[in-house]
Amino acid sequence: MRRIALILLKGAWFVLLGAWLVPAASAQEHGQVGVYVDGFRLGQTKTNFAGLGGRFSVNSHRWLQWEAEMNYDFNQVFTESLVNTSTNAVFLQRSDVRILHGLFGPRLQAGHGLVRPFVTLKGGFVNFRLDPLPATFATFASSVDNLRSQNVSGVVYPGAGLEGHLGPLGLRLDVGDEIYFNSGTHHNFRVAFGPVLRF
User: Fold this and answer.
1) For residue 30, what pLDDT is reported?
2) Of 179 and 92, which is predicted with more confidence?
3) Taking the alpha carbons of 98, 104, 108, 112 in that order, is the dihedral positive or negative?
4) Pairwise CA distance, residues 63 & 74, whole Å
5) Beta strands in 62-133 (DSSP E)
6) Is 137 helix (H, G, I), strand (E, B) or coil?
7) For the residues of 25-51, what is the DSSP string, one character each?
8) Domain 29-198 belongs to what topology?
9) Other CB atoms within 10 Å distance of the CB of residue 46
10) How do the domains of the chain map onto residue ranges?
11) Higher pLDDT, 20 or 184
């Protein structure tokens, strides 16, 4: 009798544990994957950049997602003017700047209809590169490989947006301020738009 009671108690324990873990596991099976085009306004040089990126998110609750994203802004050539103070001569030089962004953080979404507003707060890095080579996949790969040896700054990204879905396919618009920290705080306007796939 004691043995049967012990078996039933163990069975009840496994049922309770399973009932507790199954909702958490099923929440982990839902998420999103998407691609996007982004526009980035570099505040220090007042220069506009455009690039491509990808994101992946996993639900930990029906209104909370944990999201990682990375994007590469293609080179934007702008002219710098340098003044020699001893001769008052002005020199003009072209700068080939590319930007690699990586962000991770929570995204809170409201509603369960076709269009859902959301807010996000992510942290990560931004890497500015001066590179005269053409913007190709090889230069993107070298940007990722050289992250440790290049100038990398910490980033905080507060943002908001809208996401609309018809079935598993949808479109998403994000707008925010990508703030990086390098000899001070620098605010930069960022907008991203692209398709998403829910799974």
Assistant:
1) 83
2) 179
3) positive
4) 34
5) 64-84, 89-109, 115-130
6) helix
7) HHHHT-EEEEEEEEEEEETTTTEEEEE
8) Porin (2.40.160)
9) 8
10) 29-198
11) 184
